[in-house]
Write a structure and sequence with these properties.
With about 130 residues, this protein is of the alpha/beta class. It has a single domain, classed as Response regulator (Rossmann fold, 3-Layer(aba) Sandwich). It contains five helices and five strands; from the N terminus they run E-H-E-H-E-H-E-H-E-H. Strands 2-1-3-4-5 form a five-stranded parallel sheet, with helices on both faces.
């Protein structure tokens, strides 16, 4: 049996990061959490098995778009999901044009719908939900 897909969740709001992690773990994923772009880049270097990164757009140190761009350079195959309540049209266009961004998700989050989208992106979790 292959190991569960590993997802990096990046959000500086502990409640959101925790809820998302809980739902993904219950869905059969392994989850690593980070609270900033800098911490996420450290985790991405430590974990070669990451299947996906889910990041909030507005983080304390930089943006989710910055993270997606850095990950494209250091982890070219890693897909990124960017989460935000609101994006200016030009920022949303910049995010959509980033090759590593697989999806933009709006807040408020429906974590169960997001998990279904994650299943589709990474080929489903190894556990039945």
């Amino acid at each position: 049996m292959s190991p569960a897909p590993h997802i990096l969740v990046v959000d500086d709001e502990p409640v959101i990061a925790g809820l998302l992690s809980e739902v993904l773990t219950a869905g059969g994923y392994r989850v690593t959490q980070s609270e900033s772009v800098a911490a996420a880049l450290v985790e991405a270097r430590k974990h070669d098995d990451l299947a996906l990164c889910i990041t909030d757009f507005l983080l304390a140190d930089r943006t989710g778009l910055d993270l997606a761009r850095e990950l494209r350079r250091t982890r070219p195959g890693l897909q990124v999901v960017v989460v935000s309540a609101y994006l200016e049209p030009e920022i949303e266009a910049a995010i959509r044009s980033e090759s590593s961004v697989a999806l933009i998700v709006r807040k408020p989050l429906d974590v169960f719908a997001l998990r279904e989208q994650i299943d589709a992106l990474v080929g489903g979790s190894s556990a039945s939900a």
